[in-house]
Design goal:
The complex is a heterodimer of chains A (198) and B (214). Chain A has 198 residues and is mainly alpha-helical. Helices cover 47% and strands 10% of the residues of chain A. In chain A, helix 4 packs across helix 5. Chain B has two domains: 131 residues, 2-Layer Sandwich (Beta Polymerase, domain 2); 76 residues, no CATH class. Helix content of chain B is 48%, strand content 22%.
Chain lengths: 198, 214
C-alpha cells in the first residue's frame, strides 16, 4: 500500500491502536506509518503529554497555517470562525493582522480586533500599513475604543496625531448610539454598541 | 513539474522582484495544489484584474529568467486565436499561463471573487496577494480551457471531494452564458457527460443547462 492508500483507509480521527487494528500492523510499524503520513502532510496530531494522542488523517494534504484569523483567535476570548482561509507566507505581524481584519468591515471581527491592540509593537508600521490600505482613521477609532474597554498599550502621541489627522478611512453604513463622542472625534460611525462588547 | 512548497517559494521570490503590490487569482492546477488535491502541477494559472498588473508580474518573472512561449501545442487552435488567450512564460518545465479578466470567453465574475477558498499573502519587497478560486469554479474553468489532463484533474476533484455543489457550477455557467460566453454551457455539458461515467450527477443539473441552451 502506498501512502495515499493508507490516507484513504485511515481518513478521520484515529489513535495508534485503531491504526494498528485497521492496517493490521504492529504498534511500532503503525508509529512508523504515522511518521510517514505526517511527513507527507496527510496527518496532524492533537494531544500528547498526559493526553492520549489523537491523529487527524485526511486524503487531502493538511498544511500548517498562519494568517489573520489565527492571529485573531490567538488573542481574543471569543473565537471567530474564519469566513475564508488566510495564509501568510512571509513574516506576518499583529500590525498586519489588524490592518487586514479591519479592511474586512465585519462587525464581529472588528470587535475581536480590539484585543490585538495590546500586542502592537511597531505603531509607525501600523500607521503606514493602514494608510496604504486606506483605513488609518478606522484603526485610530478602534484603538480609542479598545483603550476604553481593555488593557491596551499606549500609542506614542505623535503617531496618534497622524492617525487623527489622516484623510484615509472607509465609512461604515450603520452606526450605534454608544461611543458617539469617539465617533465625532474620528468623524466615523461606530459599527457596534457597548453591549456588543460584553 | 512544480510542487506546493516549490510554488510557495517561487511566489515569495517573485514578490521580492515586484515593483508594485499585485492581487491575482489562482485557478487550475495551482489552485488544486493549494486545496491539496494534487502534489504537483505543470502550469501555474493566474488571472489578473488589469493589464498593468499582469505587465508588472511579467517584468518580475522575466528578470528571473522566464521567457515568452507560444500557445501552439498547449491550447487548441481556436483557443489560441481567442482575444482573451493567455500569455505563456516558461523556464525549464514550469510554465505560467497569465490571463487578464477573462479565461477565454469565461470571465472572472463577481460571484467567483466572493466565493474564493483562500487568500495567500507573499510579501517580500512588495506584496503578492493570491486568491484561490473555489473548487466549483476550478471545475468550471477547467471545463472551458480544454487542455490535455484538464478532465483528469476534474475527475480527481470530484472523486476526492464528495461535497461539490453542482448548483453553484451550473448557476455560474448560466450566468456566464448570459454575459456572452455562448460555449460555456456546451463545454460544461460535455465534461459532465464524461464525468457521469465515474460520479453521480443529478439529471436536474443537465436540465438546467439544456433549458438555457434552447
Amino acid at each position: 500500500m502506498n501512502i495515499e492508500e493508507y490516507a484513504k483507509l485511515l481518513e478521520g480521527r484515529q489513535t495508534v491502536d485503531t491504526i494498528s487494528s485497521l492496517t493490521k500492523l504492529k504498534k511500532t510499524s503503525s508509529l512508523n506509518l504515522i511518521s510517514r503520513l505526517k511527513k507527507s502532510h496527510y496527518l496532524v496530531k492533537t494531544g500528547g503529554g498526559k493526553q492520549k494522542r489523537i491523529y487527524i488523517i485526511s486524503q487531502r494534504k493538511i498544511f500548517p497555517e498562519i494568517g489573520m484569523f489565527d492571529m485573531l483567535n490567538k488573542y481574543t476570548k471569543e473565537k471567530i470562525v474564519p469566513p475564508f482561509k488566510h495564509i501568510a507566507h512571509s513574516n506576518y505581524k499583529v500590525e498586519d493582522a489588524i490592518a487586514d481584519l479591519i479592511s474586512l468591515k465585519n462587525t464581529r471581527i472588528n470587535i475581536g480586533v480590539l484585543s490585538l491592540f495590546n500586542h502592537v509593537k511597531d505603531w509607525n508600521y501600523l500607521y503606514n500599513l493602514s494608510k496604504q490600505k486606506n483605513i488609518a482613521r478606522n484603526v485610530g477609532l478602534f484603538y480609542d475604543i479598545a483603550r476604553t474597554r481593555m488593557k491596551t498599550r499606549k500609542m506614542p502621541e505623535n503617531i496618534y496625531k497622524r492617525f487623527l489627522n489622516s484623510k484615509s478611512f472607509i465609512p461604515y453604513a450603520h452606526g450605534g448610539n454608544d461611543f458617539r463622542e469617539l465617533g465625532k472625534k474620528w468623524k466615523l460611525k461606530v459599527p457596534f454598541n457597548r453591549v456588543d462588547l460584553q | 513539474m512544480i510542487t506546493l512548497d516549490d510554488q510557495n517559494a517561487l511566489f515569495k521570490l517573485i514578490s521580492s522582484y515586484l515593483r508594485k503590490d499585485i492581487i491575482c487569482w489562482a485557478f487550475g492546477g495551482t489552485a488544486m495544489l493549494f486545496y491539496g488535491y494534487k502534489d504537483s502541477t505543470k502550469d501555474i494559472d493566474l488571472i489578473f484584474e488589469s493589464v498593468e498588473d499582469r505587465d508588472s508580474f511579467i517584468t518580475a518573472i522575466t528578470e528571473m529568467g522566464y521567457a515568452k512561449k507560444s500557445l501552439v501545442n498547449v491550447y487548441k487552435e481556436d483557443k489560441s486565436k481567442d482575444k482573451n488567450a493567455p500569455l505563456l512564460y516558461s523556464r525549464g518545465d514550469e510554465r505560467f499561463d497569465l490571463f487578464v479578466k477573462n479565461i477565454f470567453r469565461a470571465e472572472l465574475s463577481s460571484g467567483m471573487k466572493k466565493r474564493f477558498f483562500a487568500r495567500h499573502d507573499f510579501a517580500e519587497k512588495k506584496s503578492l496577494i493570491l486568491y484561490i478560486v473555489s473548487k466549483e469554479d476550478i471545475i468550471l474553468l477547467k471545463s472551458v480551457t480544454e487542455r490535455e489532463k484538464d478532465f483528469e484533474d476534474i475527475l480527481k476533484i470530484c472523486t476526492t471531494d464528495k461535497n461539490i455543489s453542482w448548483d453553484i457550477i451550473t448557476d455560474e455557467a448560466v450566468s456566464q452564458y448570459k454575459s456572452g460566453d455562448e460555449f460555456v454551457l456546451i463545454d460544461l455539458e460535455q465534461v459532465m457527460l464524461k464525468l457521469k461515467k465515474y460520479v453521480f450527477i443529478k439529471q436536474e443539473y443537465f436540465g438546467k443547462l439544456y433549458k438555457k441552451q434552447k
